Amino acid sequence: MKEDCGIVGISLQKDSLLIFDYLYYTLHTLQHRGQESAGIAINNEEGTFIHKGMGLVSEVFNKKKESIKGNTGIGHVRYSTSGESSLENSQPFLIEDKDRLFIIAHNGNIVNHKIIKKDLESKGYTISSSSDSEVIGYLFIEKLKETDDITDAVARLMEDLKGSYSVVILYKNKIIAFRDPLGMRPLCIGELDKQTVFHNNSSVYESNNTIKGFIIASESVAIDTLDGRLIRDIKPGEVVILEDGVITEEKHLVKLEHTAHCMFEYVYFARPDSVIDGRSVYDVRMAIGELIAQRANIDADFVSPTPDSGVTFAIGYAISSGLPYIESLIKNRYVGRTFINPNQEDRELMVKIKLNPIHNNVEGKKIVLVDDSVVRGTTSKRIVNILRKAGAKEIHLCIGCPPLISPCYFGVDFTTNDELIASKKNISEISEMIGADSITYATIDDIVTAIGIEKDNLCLSCLTGIYHI
Fold this sequence. Notes:
By secondary structure, this protein is α+β, with helices and mostly antiparallel strands. The protein folds into 2 domains: 6-256, 4-Layer Sandwich (Glutamine Phosphoribosylpyrophosphate, subunit 1, domain 1); 283-464, Rossmann fold (3-Layer(aba) Sandwich), CATH 3.40.50. The protein has helices at residues 18-29, 57-60, 113-122, 132-146, 150-160, 220-225, 263-269, 281-296, 311-321, 344-354, 359-362, 378-389, 427-434, 444-451, 461-464, and strands spanning 6-16, 37-44, 47-54, 70-78, 93-96, 101-110, 163-171, 174-179, 188-195, 199-201, 204-205, 210-217, 229-233, 238-243, 246-252, 261-262, 275-276, 279-280, 302-305, 329-331, 355-357, 366-371, 394-399, 438-441, 458-459. A 7-stranded antiparallel beta sheet has the order 3-2-4-1-12-9-13. A 6-stranded antiparallel beta sheet has the order 5-6-7-8-14-15. A hairpin with a 2-residue loop joins strand 10 (199-201) and strand 11. 54% of the residues are buried.
């Protein structure tokens, strides 16, 4: 399973060399949402700067970074939900025709993008990538031909797009940000009003200047990085426009009877220190762990997480069960998250070098091993095998996400039933395949209770097979 993409848009009240620093550091904060490619775009009086490449933020942009002055910019970290992992599909995308030029970054997945792309190409547009994000950009140009009003163009865009999307567009000195009407992918806004602390290089330091402005990002942790203040989440179906460091427009364009917030943001995607739609991700995961423990009642010596994804769930389980929380595995932190590598061969190789057991803690012990999810089952099988070889007497898996039985078409990397072990095997068969003594999943009711959003307003399609679109 791969991560969601991460997006950020920043608008400052005055030109500053720190615009690049702000984008650079916030992309670092969102790195967990995608490690295949990264990109930054900045507009200033001299024109448009875009730099993007394959790899981590630190690999695409060296520590010296760039001395680029400006007050408006966007950034993106990617994994491939639509389109292969390649430089041509990396974001942000430059979108232009004879009358307009803007840059777009997108998180989500447009399920009807092939139909839209075919229609746009019939009208003479050349779409060079296989990414649905570029399709959104050229469709936006088409809508701007129908109306000069930006918010009206976004409203018309929303009428045509089917799927999940949070978008930031860099247009002249504006940031145009909007979120799909179902609210599947997160997007929040924060205020910047602080004395700067980042050095661009040894010769540039602006600590005596107060930089004011606003930031829009996939997760609130990006706002925290700049010591900003989280204002709120952008509403499903809302557009927010920033210009010269102020909010110039906020308009709720489409309001549906129900939303479909992705439950996987809380279970897996987001950092635990993020707040999404008013809910602390950490608190949600803690609550899920507590609910599993109340039902599982496993006789064990201690509770242990699969680092780092299972940590918060395991703490909740330990608190509720009264069992001690003890580490059984140590993570090599110089290896990226296993599930976001583009192919299965890479995923399996990563597990081998990513985790190592603490033999003294494991040998002869009955362990409750807690993780966030089981998708294909291959990673869990290898982890259980590592602990068996280290001498574990019993291994009882507890999983923070209910069984994944149906594909996701809205931005998660399991688009066929063949990739989902729970679509083909029952719980006892999964436990046997993985090599665990037992496996206990969170239930859908656990998820709904822990998140605190009504069931009808959550996207649970991968758990139920019932789709909102």
